[in-house]
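Batch 3, record 17
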Amino acid sequence: MARKIQNQKAWLFVIPVVVLVAFNAIIPLMTVVNYSIQDTYGNNIFLWSGLKWYEELLASERFHDALVRQVAFTFIILAIEIPLGVAIALAMPRRGPWVSVCLVLMALPLLIPWNVVGAMWNIYALPDIGLLGYLLNAAGWDYNFTRHPFDAWFTTVMMDVWHWTSLVVLLAYAGLVSIPDAYYQAARIDGAKRWAVFRHIQLPKMKRVLTIAVLLRFMDSFMIYTEPFVLTGGGPGNSTTFLSIDLNKVALGEFALGRAGAMSLVYFLIILLLSWIFYTVMTRNEDRS
Amino acid sequence: MRLRWIIPALYILFLLLPIYWLLNMSFKTTNEILGGFSWWPQQFTLDSYITILTDPTWYNGYINSLTYVVINTVISVVVALPAAYAFSRYRFLGDKHLFFWLLTNRMAPPAVFALPFLQLYDAIGLFDTHLAVALAHCLFNIPLAVWILEGFMSAVPRELDETAYVDGYSFPRFFVKIFMPTIASGIGVAAFFCFMFSWVELLLAKTLTQVDAKPIAAIMTRTTSTAGYELGLLAAAGALTIIPGAVVIWFVRNYIAKGFALGRV
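Prediction for the assembled complex:
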């Protein structure tokens, strides 16, 4: 990258962006902060309540449960999607007419509206008339995602793998095709094994894009709302009620503004903190190698 | 390694099966769907599609969705262009913090903002308009567009700018006539991603609209909950939402990955 010139007038170019984003980010965020430290009894009367909502939230079992479910879900889908995506990218053709076909078909799930994804998987997994549910039941598994919590989890995880693994594939593939042929030739001359090529040539080249893949998948899975909401509605019971679903129940369902405000801020801070940790840990490794 | 193609082939099969099932359902009558399991439609019908394409409450949903998506894409790319140029070419007070702050908005869960957004847009009288949804989606699309464009712009050497000034170009003329054509693929990718994330987002779009600007995806859920279980209609409406995405993917197929990597592969 070329060296940059010091120029304070560049701010003029940035102002429209700052104004638009700040309008959308800061005003709502301040609204949330306001709610989180006040109590209301309707009629637009608000009373100062200090940190009451935060104390209540951090002590509440409901929040703990939703948080644990959220972390478990994010961990599971990262553990499946990242290795699977890399494996598929490694097996993809590098050139020829099939490349475009693969890329377009694989990108398809990424452009389907999220609630359509949920509805589609709902239809697909129905035990009696859905293909997946029908086949699983035919194979002897008493499968019903609206009744058994394990089946609900299985379906939700599978849906997310279906929806987002392609993102990892596309990124890993972009990293792979940027490796010059000379690297592989050198490895062949050295008699390197398949694993050694992967470990010492392909993986380092993919590190940068995989960092982005992990960050994007972490952030998006931690905020997941629409797909599981349409698929399972958070059920059966509360078994698939993740943080966003719970938050929306509190905010728009129960209209408990104080609790929702405190929960929003804690939730947002958790994402920011974890993203920052991921980012620093992964970029530090990058510097070392 | 002759059989390596099996892995992507199986993966694509896994991706296409739910979509096939959706199409299968959309060509069946409701009676046939509820009647039992079948691999393909026994009584092939286009009724669901005809209903959607002739009933204004249905097809207006598509028009609404496309309207706010296009408005959002235009706003996001137009304001992101100069900002990305500033980030890629100049150092200025607080540039790095600003850049990171923009990214943090990509991390904000829409569920956190749903209620405050409703109150904010209601207060300024934009509730239930296309503009409200378009502006709300700017929250995550502008940062994304800035990041992607900055990546593409940084790959263009400074010499291009300097040569143009020596040749007597003014800044606006240089930007529009020379610079924008140079990063045309970057602009295309940024527009694609804005389109995509605005098209698939529903929580904010649903919260900010009631009748006049209701997105198709929200109309779908409403119909299933009130009119019983009209799976055929639901499936057909869902199948139709796949088309715009499939069309735009085709145009950017060679750049998709670069875009997801925020222009930094």
